[in-house]
Amino acid sequence: MKWIYEIILILFSLSLIGFFIDFIHHNRKANKIAFWLICVVWLLQTVFFFYEVFGEKGFPVTNLVDSLFFYSWVLITLSIIINKLFKIRFIVFFIQVFGFFILLLYFAASTTHNQLNDSIQFVHEILIAHITLAIVSYGFFTVAFLLSIMYLIQYRFLKRKKGLKWMWQLGDLKQLDRYSFIAISIGVPLLLIAIILGVVWAYFSASEFYWFDMKTIGSLLVLIVYVGYLVLRLVVGYVGKPLATYNTGAFLILLVNFFLFSTLSNFHF
After folding, report:
1. In this predicted model, what pLDDT tens digit does every residue of 164-183 receive, in sequence order?
2. Which CATH architecture describes the domain 1-111?
3. 269 vs 121: CA distance, rounded Å
């Protein structure tokens, strides 16, 4: 069953990223792909659901672990209905984030309850996915930072109306700003999923987990800072130099979290 759990989580994660990109960029193609991915997740969950009802002869709400599965199935069902009928993208994304968290809790709890060896391996794979997604998100944030630095350099030379010919190879200012925005739009959902995986791993592993651990606080701070970037762009309406400067500062916070807070953490490397 473990490999089916992993497939469901991968599809669910890709769906979350797609819905987030659609929410930020109004990308209907991303929405369509994400919708079909979440439909596949819902279909697989529905198969499990009917197996529990008719195969095990019981409705899956008799204990806390089974209730988590049914809870996540209800949330995914509601998100699909809302997405098709009401077109409220913001609430759909957050319903699915919460549904992903509940489903991940169910998978971890069910493997822990059933088989010890599978539980240890599954929890370890959650840790690997947590670290991998976090580092990949940092990669996108790094690309966004470099694009912002290129923007600021290009902006400075254009302002002074001087510079070498090779400076024009840095790219158009609007293009640099847009690509930085896209990189952060991908990095944010990846980091969000990584944090959710990290919380679930810490809860089911033997490691002591502290919400006030420096690495935990640092990761949440990085997420909040980059969400702040999206708010400034989408809600406040900032573009160009102010956001490039903000992004540069955000990346410095990321570096502090990665190199300094990791050494001060009680359970992170």
Report:
1. 555 555 567 788 888 888 88
2. Up-down Bundle (1.20)
3. 20
Distances (CA, A) of 202 to 130, 162, 194, 242: 11, 54, 12, 37
The CA radius of gyration of the chain, in Å to the nearest whole number, is 21
User: What pTM was estimated for this model as a whole?
Assistant: 0.73
* Distance, first Cα to last Cα, the chain: 31
Amino acid at 202: A
Position 122 scores a pLDDT of 60
How many angstroms separate the CA atoms of 229 and 188, rounded?
10
| Contact by Cβ (8 Å): 16, 100 | yes
Q: How far is CA 185 from CA 76, 132, 205, 242, in A?
A: 23, 18, 31, 17
**Which residues of the chain carry a pLDDT beneath 50?**
269
Question: For the chain, what are the domain ranges?
Answer: 1-111, 123-268
- pLDDT per residue as tens digits for the range 17-37: 888 888 777 778 888 888 888
Reported residue count of the chain is: 269
- CA nearest to 262, candidates 134, 84, 79, 106: 134
pLDDT of 226 reads 93
CB of 83 closer than 8 Å to CB of 35: yes
Q: How far is CA 78 from CA 8, 93, 193, 203, in A?
A: 18, 11, 20, 27
